[in-house]
Amino acid sequence: MTGTMRNAALACRDAATKIAALGAAQKRDLLIAMAARIEADVALILAANQLDMIAAAHRDVTAALLDRLRLDSERIAAIARSLREVAELPDPVGQVTRRDTRPNGIVVERVRVPLGVIAMIYEARPNVTVDAAALCLKAGNGVILRGGSEAIHSNRALAGLLKQALHDAGLPPAAVTLVEDLRRETMIELLQLADIVDLAIPRGGEGLIRFVAEHARVPVIKHYKGVCHLYVDKTADLDVALDLLIDGKVSRPSACNALETLLVHADVADVFLPRAAAALAACKVELRGCARTCALLGPIAAASEEDYATEYLDLIIAIRIVDDLDSAIAHIRRFGSDHTEVIASADADAARTFVSALRSAVVMVNTSSRFSDGGELGLGAEIGISTTRLHAYGPMGIEALTIERYVLRGNGQIRHRLSPATRNSNC
């Protein structure tokens, strides 16, 4: 119905002013109460998720999406734990990030304030419903949640519990607004509410993010895909490199921080790649390689140009042997998505060159790509990973959901003092 989305957004904006006025202790208590409510209603959440899983089983749904959709007791416990971690984070609102005194005596401050209303548009992962709400509320914002149809029952159950916690705290439940009309027309209406919504954050497949970017009149933080690389340098500790490879590719291949491409220096390829191939095969990972890789490893699929640009989100990896560090950097610049890149190297100069030459949001030296995650980086949780160079880049926590404004404090200073004649004129 025309205007329904606008009315819901207006209610969220009004509620956001109440959230923005809360003190740090009040927001902390609110998030802890939300965690307790989720822990108390695990059975309700699991029942709702089971409905989504049954529906997904009757559709052509990938294994990666099913993994993102599934909740169990352990994952629900992790959701509650994440809420508590966000609750205990320092409150960014009101933080003074710069203070200078001008020659005229005016004190100039840059102060963090809430963004206002954030539209979170996402697919499959029900945990995003809670993570996004927690981060937005902690930063003093209201949030409009538009999940995918595949998770509607799970999202409805989780959002309902969050809204109940808001109500119990005497706060407007509209501060967490779940869009249940999942028609694309409704999403477009939401994305065009530039006078109400301050930022849209899409989180999902490349198609969803391009749709949001093409239809939005509000600012959009984009993260198209995660084509993440591991480069094994000629000086790498090969045991370390193998651990980074297996953890990065196998531990959760459906995650956006999973490795999709392995680059190996030619000087160590003969030793490293057979070991890597055996370890990956034991984990049922399909290999696709360049001509040199195929010649070394035998009957594996040849990698195409498209393979090197693909975010598989599955147990598949593309491999290329490169002649030197510069070749690895050139490959990443060509095929990467500005998400996460890893170098395994014992050469400090090579690592420094790798870090400085690449502009990806997260660059790592001798550590797993799976640490490219808000929780692992100390953000408590993340609302997404930005590969757009706006006010936030990389995993986005609560600080990324605030903006800095100027506050000036003086004692009567004026910039221009008019003469008596000018003050008495009509000019």
Textual characterization of the structure:
- By secondary structure, the protein is an alpha/beta fold.
- The protein has 2 domains: 4-222 and 388-409, 3-Layer(aba) Sandwich (Aldehyde Dehydrogenase, Chain A, domain 1); 228-371, Aldehyde Dehydrogenase, Chain A, domain 2 (3-Layer(aba) Sandwich), CATH 3.40.309.10.
- 44% of the residues lie in helices and 19% in strands.
- It has 16 helices and 16 strands.
- It has helices spanning 4-20, 24-40, 42-57, 63-69, 73-88, 127-138, 152-168, 184-191, 206-215, 238-250, 266-282, 291-297, 305-308, 325-335, 348-357, 420-423; strands at residues 96-101, 107-114, 117-122, 142-146, 176-178, 199-203, 228-232, 259-265, 286-289, 301-302, 316-322, 340-344, 362-365, 384-386, 394-396, 402-409.
- The strands form 4 sheets. The chain has a 7-stranded parallel beta sheet, sandwiched between helices. Strands 5-4-3-6 form a 4-stranded parallel beta sheet, with helices on both faces.
- Helix 15 links the parallel strand 12 (340-344) and strand 13.
- The longest helix has 17 residues, at 4-20.
- The N and C termini lie far apart (52 Å).
- The relative contact order is 0.13.
- The model has no long low-confidence stretch (mean pLDDT 94).
